[in-house]
Amino acid sequence: MSVSAPAIDARAAAREATASVKKSGTSFAAGMAILPRPRREAMHAIYAFCREVDDIADDPDMSVTEKRTRLAEWRREIESLYAGRPTNSAAIALIAPVRAFDLPKNEFLMMIEGMEMDAEGPIVAPSFERLYAYTRRVAGSVGLLSMPTFGAPKGFASDRFALALGDALQLTNILRDVAEDASIGRVYLPSELLKMHGAPTDPAGIAALPPALAKVARDLGLIASKKFAEARAALADLDWRTVRPALLMMGAYEAYLRKMTARGWEHAGAPVRLSKAEKLFIAARYAFAPPLKTAQG
Prior knowledge:
Blueprint: H1 10-24, H2 29-33, H3 37-58, H4 64-82, H5 89-92, H6 95-101, H7 105-119, H8 128-150, H9 156-176, H10 178-183, H11 191-196, H12 203-207, H13 212-234, H14 244-263, H15 276-288
């Protein structure tokens, strides 16, 4: 696959992507910062793309029809990117990363599919099958684009690590944001757990933080913990130093999960935060040594 530069300034597009990361204040920024410049800029470009399509899916002032149209435009833009003719600044910023790191086109399309799932209307109490289809698209795609950007080798171990960690991060996010999501009409908690524990499946019911929510959150927390363990197991076949940016995210999100578990799932709707000192400790621990303990250990 050959990607040629368009007339639009690719360096300007790269700077816009970097500015997007800085403006967002994303927790991914720390992990990106430790990469060499070409890989760091590639991650910035991947993030900028994800931010663009996510903003479309989440825009409260945009109709479903308009969201479909905008996301369809992005599908065409990805095709244009791989044909060497992108026109959108965020896509132009991806030219060098796609060429340098052989980024898979399908994963950009998978991310768009995930955004289409959100855009079609709030996801409410999905089945486990649908939830995992969603996490595969919105988190797994990022992982599978990130691994070659980090310099990890292609193969089963890299894929297993990326997909397990993507699930773990997304499930932890769901647990962190359960009340906030419910307030805007979304319930990402799986219907099987909600029904098993007699919890409501509608956003208003979840927003009221019923007692049964604690059991649902506990069970989903255990699943997230197992996903972190699966990602850690995959590290046995990888050079952990290659994936340090991902490990920084892993450390932070395991800390969130550990905090939520320790305080008790009856407080599932309350915000959870890491102090600056905790973030610095995690950065030092995961940047200079392989992770050995589990989130619960």
